Amino acid sequence: MGMVYLTGAGPGDMELLTLKALRVVKMADVIIYDRLANPDILKEAKNGCAFVYVGKEDGRHIMPQDQINEVIYQNALQHETVVRLKGGDPFVFGRGGEEAAYLHEHNITFEIIPGITSAVSAPAYAGIPVTHRGIAVSFRVVTGHEAPDKQTSQIPWENFKTDDTIVFLMGLHNLDKISQKLIEVGKAPTYPCAVISKGTTTEQRVVVGTLETIVERAQDMPTPALIVVGKVVELREQLAWFHT
Ligand code: SAH
Asked: Known catalytic residue: 170?
């Protein structure tokens, strides 16, 4: 039986892959990857390495998660070294926990290789620090996949009145509802926010606006994209450094 490495591929820029991830990619007998992992990483695999695509489209799963779990398991029965390569960090909205739990249930040994999450690195490449002395003492990473008007929403919207930075992943299609909801719970319509598309890649695009203007401004932004809400967004004026 094989060993499975649940591996973070980083946010896009190939050089944001960890040394540990690169080591297991080079060793792998099979790499199971999805859309968000930079395909150039696969070129580092050894000759004869098999590739299995279990594509995910912006939070909407092309292959259902239970099927992905089973694919990983079946590959672990057949190969010595299995790399499950996931965009960003495997435990930040990557459902890596579910994959690890499934392997545990089936007595397959695994290791987790954390990756650089887009939640922090895409803002960094946009010149937006998620915390900043005197401006934001904490940051949250929140799913934007769940529509804020949903009755059963588990998101503590009422807590979002503070100036802590909020990063929404998988939220571009709900941007109108998210910005509306934040105004509803008490944030000013002029409160700063940004949308970052394809962060850390050569196709990175950033738009800055307010809760009131961002929907209009971010209209044509391609996915993957994330939303940053917070006063830290204003620091971009001084800190933008990555130009595409
Ligand atoms: N595990 C991943 C997140 C998976 S959820 C991580 O740690 O980064 C997928 C969401 O991540 C996308 O909908 C988008 O909101 C965000 N995302 C991933 N890569 C991104 C990138 N390069 N730029 C902007 N957002 C990105």
From this structure: yes
Full DSSP string of 36-68 = TS-GGGGGGSPTT-EEEE--EETTEESS-HHHH
pLDDT digits (tens, 9 = 90+) for 13-45: 999 999 999 999 999 999 999 888 899 999 999
Task: Note whether 7 and 94 are within 8 A (CB).
Answer: no
Cα of 121 from ligand 1 centre, angstroms: 10
Q: Which has more pLDDT, 161 or 3?
A: 3
58 lines ligand 1 (CB under 6 A): yes
Q: Domain 3-113 carries which CATH code? A: 3.40.1010.10
Classify domain 118-239 at the CATH superfamily level.
Tetrapyrrole methylase, C-terminal domain (3.30.950.10)
Q: Which atom of ligand 1 is nearest to 94's Cα?
A: 1
Residue 105 has pLDDT above 60, yes or no: yes
Q: Is the pLDDT of residue 60 over 90?
A: no
Both tokens assigned to 145: 């996949």
34 included as an active-site residue: yes
Q: Is the CB of 200 under 6 A from ligand 1?
A: yes
Contact 167, 119 (CB under 8 A): yes
Predicted confidence band of residue 56 (pLDDT cuts 50, 70, 90)? low
Atom of ligand 1 nearest to the CA of 118: 8
